[in-house]
Design brief:
seven-stranded mixed β-sheet
Length: 257
């Protein structure tokens, strides 16, 4: 069942992202917890090496290193120094929340504090990404929905503290064959916001909260935010399963050569 706190619905940024492609996917994301993918676990491992491990299930060093080859772990250790040099001083794994009349909006920032960006110290909210091909995944991001996190986290921080901070993505390419004398590919992406930008966040959250239908968009069952992959919630979706499980019948002679 959807999590409730103080008898109010709780919305997370990762759930809200689903609404753009399929409102029903947003509903499913609130009802079912997806197991963390290998990529997510590797990202959490790298975050631990750089910012510190947490004594929580799914975040402990021994759990995240389990099953990894020594050669892979040795490569990951080469990432640590050049990335740690970006972080100057601040807090890791900062939980944020703001209560509205009908719901609570939450998030957790990887880091809030001072970083060294392009040779200058700035105070920012930071998300550390450990990803595949940077060019394929990051070079074509231009829409607000693709940078949703960069709006919601500064919004939550501003509501709680009155401090308006930029949001910085630090994107590190995961290359398990990185040679010893080669630095990892690191891309930084800074998003600046104004207080006026927060009206977009508030309008989006209110639209989602007031959508009582949450209709499915079956065109997003394969594709949408996930490229050519199928929706990760398809197993629980009666609308998405139907066309895939549909029976097919053909004469062999009618098949193409």
């Amino acid at each position: 069942k959807p999590v409730k706190s103080k008898d109010k619905l709780v919305y997370r940024q990762s759930q809200i992202y689903n609404y753009f492609d399929c409102p029903y996917r947003f509903k499913l994301s609130r009802e079912f917890d997806m197991p963390r993918s290998l990529a997510m676990k590797e990202g959490t491992l790298m975050e631990g090496y750089i910012l510190g491990f947490r004594d929580e299930d799914g975040y402990r060093q021994e759990e995240l290193e389990k099953g990894k080859k020594k050669d892979t772990l040795d490569v990951y250790q080469r990432y640590v120094a050049p990335i740690q040099a970006i972080f100057v001083d601040g807090q890791h794994a900062v939980k944020m929340a703001w209560e509205f009349p009908g719901y609570i909006l939450t998030g957790e920032a990887d880091f809030i504090g001072t970083i060294n960006l392009l040779g200058e110290p700035i105070r920012a909210i930071v998300d550390l990404k450990f990803t595949g091909d940077i060019f394929k995944i990051w070079m074509e991001k231009t829409g607000k929905r693709q940078f949703l996190q960069s709006a919601i986290y500064p919004y939550l921080h501003f509501k709680s503290t009155g401090e308006l901070l930029p949001f910085v993505y630090i994107v590190v390419e995961n290359n398990k064959s990185l040679q010893e004398d080669v630095l990892p590919l690191i891309k930084t992406y800074r998003i600046d916001l104004t207080i006026d930008d927060f009206a977009w966040v508030e309008s989006l959250i209110e639209t989602i909260h007031n959508d009582k239908e949450l209709d499915p968009n079956t065109s997003a069952c394969i594709g949408g935010a996930f490229g050519n992959m199928r929706c990760p919630y398809l197993m629980w979706c009666k609308y998405g399963r139907r066309p895939i499980e549909e029976h097919n019948h053909a004469n062999f002679s009618d098949l193409t050569d």
